[in-house]
Amino acid sequence: MLYIDTHTHIDGTEFDDDRDAVIARAKEAGVSKMFVPAINCQSLTTIQKVCDAYPGYAYPMIGLHPEEVKADWATQLQHMHNLLQGPHPYIAIGEVGLDYYWSRDFADEQLKAFEEQVKWSVETQLPLMIHCRKAQNEMVAIMRRYAHQLPGGVFHCFTGNQKEALELLSFPQFALGIGGVSTFKSSHLREDLPAVVPLNRIVLETDSPYMAPVPLRGQRNESSFIPHIINTLATSYDVTPEEVARITTETALRLFPLAQTSI
Known about the structure:
It is a single chain. The chain is of the alpha/beta class. Helices cover 40% and strands 14% of the residues. The chain is built from 9 helices and 8 strands. Helix 5 links the parallel strand 5 and strand 6. The chain starts with a strand and ends in an 8-residue tail after the last helix. 45% of the residues are buried.
């Protein structure tokens, strides 16, 4: 049973001591590919190093995370856009979006940075990997301006309700990224997802090293933990784990065509 982790920060310092072992465990557990989002310019270096070490397995994205939007946001975006002008290895624009959970100090700058990177997706036809917390209305308003030009992508780490899910699914080329939160005792995703979200509009993710699934909650998350997410979804949708793996993999490869090398 093979499947894809569409969102892992495997380049992070949390994995510096045992990254090779973590990737070996992922492969043994059935992870056929890893998609690695950027958060800022500095992360592009660490991401590329990991992806170069695991060609055809780890795939890089490029983007400025909303929590990294500070006074120098325009300079960072200019550097990233320059990298997109010629041949590039990136499979997506991400991790980008809006996050008003902790602070709104750079709220206006986040809006400008997000819209600029949405335009990159239109320009390059690279899919978006979108992070959104406490800002769905603002995010959707920006995306609607470009809805008919966008190639698609993922609403990463979806934890919302049925109404919010339906609003996001109104962007037909996008899927919801589902991770460890779906296994939490307090989560309503086990009921809400099968009620309104077709299984082929879901992709698997860890967001590792964050948000490890039950029964490993509190540990450093890693891609080899994905079977716990698969089993939770299989129970919710009343299908086999193999069916969840197959359908989510097909969706991930459709949304990220530059990752369609053999698995």
